[in-house]
Write a structure and sequence with these properties.
Blueprint: H1 2-45
């Protein structure tokens, strides 16, 4: 029964880490999209 608890804890820890990694990736993508939008605005102004 102790192994079951350990496995359950490890699985939830991995899920939590995965969610954090996805959040960081999403943040990077949002910043890149904002940068691209700014470049587009600058190019349209020319």
């Amino acid at each position: 029964m102790n192994y079951l608890f350990m496995a359950y804890t490890i699985i939830w820890a991995l899920i939590a880490i995965y969610i954090v990694v996805l959040g960081k990736r999403q943040g990077k993508i949002v910043k890149e999209l904002e940068f691209i939008e700014e470049l587009k605005k600058v190019n349209e102004a020319k």
